[in-house]
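ENTRY TYPE: protein
WANTED: fold as tokens:
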Amino acid sequence: MILKHQHFEILQKTVLERLVFNPPLKADGTMHNEACFLYAVNGNSKLYAATEKQGLKSSEGVVMKCGNYLNNWQKSGTDEPSEAIAIHFYPEIMKLIYDDELPEFLKTEKQVKTVAIEKVTINHLIESYMSNILFYFENPSFVNDELIKLKVKELILLLVKSDESGRILNIIKDLFNPSQYEFKDIINSNLYEDLSVDDLAVLSGLSMSSFKRKFNEIFNESPARYIKNKRLDKASELLKATTKRISDICYETGFGDPTHFTKSFSEKFKYSPSEYRSKYLS
């Protein structure tokens, strides 16, 4: 349940955004010509790109280049709401901020292959910056276009200066170059995640009808049946080859519900997971 949603815009585009909500909450979307810095003020989530995933905890942040994403905020052990802040980047806003001339450190000399999601090392300067952003959301009368441009420019400088590895600088240079992925790679990268067929369609950037048609063309089977069988086959191997708890195997193979896992496994193998393991060991 969303408790509070605030945002500030320039050129009719959301640049600063704050969301306060009660998890679980699943948010999906495509950033066509947009990128962002996402910061978890409070809460835990699993963030999925086409072939990548990244955990996000309280006081952690990531930079995300344009692409297809799924953000699955998980329920915590407390009643405290989750909160996230996103600072969005757009090519036209970047030109506005830098007066049509990007600084030298943001210019790309050669194409660098980057990931879709890059974890940011949060230092005290970025922590102070995020506290300052929260102050403006609590006091929106202070906010105008010039302030928004200043805060975006400040964030970029902080991200680049706090990054000793150069990874953040590379991804910022590459923010608006979407990565290209093979359909098979997207499916295989997420086969054992607790994601639905709808979720996989989002990560593929396809409508549900187009996704099902393409899936059937490549795998010669419906997505639901193929994915379910692959997950059950992996579960059967883990039951035979490891001493992991059945509940752990359930979650490791992409089943979010142990009851559903046991029912599905029994239907395919004619034994419950525990019976199957006992039969194999004997």
In short: DSSP finds eleven helices and ten strands in the chain.
